[in-house]
Specification:
By secondary structure, the protein is of the alpha+beta class. The chain contains 3 helices and 8 strands. A 5-stranded antiparallel sheet has the order 1-8-3-5-6, covered by helices on one side. Belongs to the UPF0047 family.
């Protein structure tokens, strides 16, 4: 198994960050063939999604999350910025891990699919993402 931890800078704002290029570079460096890629976010306030980016879907996702999880004072968990409790609910909706099939060294994603970090927590401008390749 090959594994690496990458650092993603979200800039202290809500963000959907495409990880596809970092994943492809990791799989090349791991000499990947067929297998499985596990992606893990070791944070209590971030998750991962497979989504189209660049055509507005990433912005739509953040908008939908704002509607579903408003940044207001309804949350019991209250440290950090106003509405921060919603950030701690996010991983129950946008999971902190995923597995992606790898075929001949590349992810088996569809044409418009990208693996993305989803981060609504402006209090943490730097995130870590663990990539692990398991040969098949």
């Amino acid at each position: 198994m090959d594994s690496t931890l990458i650092e993603i800078r979200t800039g202290g704002r809500e963000a959907v960050v495409d990880l596809t290029d970092e994943i492809a570079a990791f799989l090349r460096s791991a000499g990947a063939g067929d297998g499985l890629l596990n992606v893990w976010v070791p944070h209590a306030t971030a998750g991962l999604a497979v989504i189209e980016t660049g055509a507005g879907s990433d912005t739509d996702l953040l908008s939908a999350l704002r509607d579903l999880l408003p940044a207001d004072d309804r949350w019991t968990h209250r440290h950090g910025s106003p509405g921060h409790g919603r950030d701690h609910v996010l991983p129950a909706i946008v999971a902190p891990s995923m597995s992606v099939p790898v075929l001949d060294g590349s992810t088996a994603l569809g044409t418009w699919q990208s693996v993305c970090l989803v981060d609504t927590n402006g209090d943490n401008p730097v995130r870590s993402v663990r990539l692990s390749y398991l040969p098949g």
